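Sat 14:20. Reprocessing the chain from the morning session after the first attempt stalled halfway. Input below, unchanged.
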Amino acid sequence: MNRSGGIPVKKEILKISQSSIAQALAADYFCIYFVNVENDKFIEYSASPEYREFGFPSMGDDFISFSRKNFELRIHPDDREDFLQRFTKENIIRSLNRKKTFTMTFRMLFAEGPVYVHLKVTRMIEKEGHHAVIGISSVDDQMKSREAAKRAHSESITYARVAQALSGDYFSIYVVDPDTERFMEYSAAREYEQLGIEKEGEDFFNLSRRNMERVIYPEDKERFLGTFTKENILSTLERGGSFTMKYRLMLNDEPVYVSMKATLVEDEKGRYLIVGTNNIDAQMKLEQEYQARVENAKNRAKNDFLANMSHDIRTPMNAIVGYTNIAKTHLHDIDIVKDSLDKIGSSSHFLLSLINDVLDMSKIESGKMQLSVGKCDLEALLCRIEDITSMQAQSKELKITYDQSGVKHFRVRGDELRIEQVLINIISNAIKYTPRGKSVDLIAEELSTQKNDEGKLFSRYRFVVKDTGVGISEDYLPHLFESFTREENTLVNRVQGTGLGLAITARVVELMGGIISVKSKQGEGSEFTVELDLELDPEKCAEDEGNDLAEGAASAPDEGGQAAGNEENAADLTGRRILIVEDNAVNAEIAKMILSQYGMETDHAENGQIGVEKMKEAASAADGESGESSGEAAKAYDAVLMDIQMPVMNGYEATQAIRAIDSEYCREVPIIAMSANAYDDDVRACLAVGMNTHIAKPFNPEDLIGALKKYLR
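Finished this time. Tokens:
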């Protein structure tokens, strides 16, 4: 009985044990499937609750297709392609035949996030060997631990190598705890070791300051101690800035430039201050040598410029002084006096052009030059240029031509004064450097028209100035638009000038958004090209289209308030009373003499304050408040000529004070600025405080009389 009955009992116990073992092992798996390898039928043996949330079927006919279709949606995107390539029936059977298992690891997307899983396929131990068991278990903790260890190892190797590589370029590197100020030297060069500075310890900042007092170059000590403080460094770094400073250390009794850089590093272990000192002595010395060369070159250029300016200024001044003396000694010979005055006037204009060049260049380089954009008649502008430059060309017996047939639209918006300045500079330069009997040509063309994003019409204009003059050498051509330069050429050096004309021209073209270029061949001539994009005046486009330009011939006041038009039809100035507010007695006398020639009466105020007081008296007379006879009314002034720079009260303040007087007369009386402050923003400043217009000193008498006739109608 025992023997015969023992077999069934043993089998039963074994059956129960195997079942328990299988169930116990299955608990470590997300799921287990039985699969018939030959026909691919499958049945789920067990599955965890998390796995069942996927909603996969528990049995089916085609396990491979089932897995590829359903798993694809639940596998992390980065692992999906690898899974689909490897998880095929052919790969699985090949692996089972060779090593009895097929495994792969990937991430599945569970509700709580991606989890690393391990899929294992094992052939069942049976005679036929038709079945396989497929289990999917979690290996998330192992994989993440392995990745973290690998990453830490990689980072430690990388950081160590990077730190070692970088430390070789530094005098010293310190790691500092910014809270406790404990520090440790990470590396130091041999030269730095000789300074005898501590390698580790506490109180980093105070200790460093004491050490620096001993080893720093004396001239840098105060600046270093004022900058190198814990509060200053940390506040700079915590604001997201960078802290660097340069100073000199005394090494072997010689000052050596170093650069200190402090960086704040934070990680899971805390935060650290990395302070590195880099030897930049070689770089600083190279930079100093370069700066010295640049400074020497600038000084040479300035010295050359001053030498040229000294010569060029003394030449017209010599003529002015000389012909003044000639006129004085020949007062009774009208022809000699007239000829002397003409030559004095010509020399004065040349001297003024030299001064204007220098002032313009200063204005450009300080960034204060501004454009004054307004209505611009290119036809009138080109006619003025022809009038001015044709006389210059005739005096040198040059053939000069002007061609504007390629321009379709003449009415544009731009800075008319600056466009004229650019073209006259280029043409005058061509005339200067073109020998007698040769030629100069100005060609104006309109290339294309298009609308911008705002719907405004713009045309590109090209202005070409060609000459058959001396040309420009290939070596000098790249320096043509530089300030204070002239070509070293015998013929060129005989021509007077500042060497600023083309530099100013190039800067003004650039300010207008244009392009300037030059082609030249020495001995054959030069060709300058200026291209500008100018907005078309929509009101005048139609007139230009029909070539109806007659209306444009009638001149009008410019936007700065300068007088224009036919003066003969303007008001008679005889008997008009003008107040001259001017602190310079000579300038006041010149204005008085010019005005008296036109029958005007004048009064003089030595500064702005006196001018205001005189205008208060004039206001009483003009408004009839005094109740006196009509003779009192004669004290009223018809206009005021106002200087700007004066003691006690300047012209701006005086104008504002006059306009603020409770009098209609003071609000309306014309106030004309006559000032050596002649830049665009000076003109705007005058208009802003209530002046009517601006005339620059030294002034042309016709400009002054024209302005008075305009405002005293």
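The chain has a mean pLDDT of 80.
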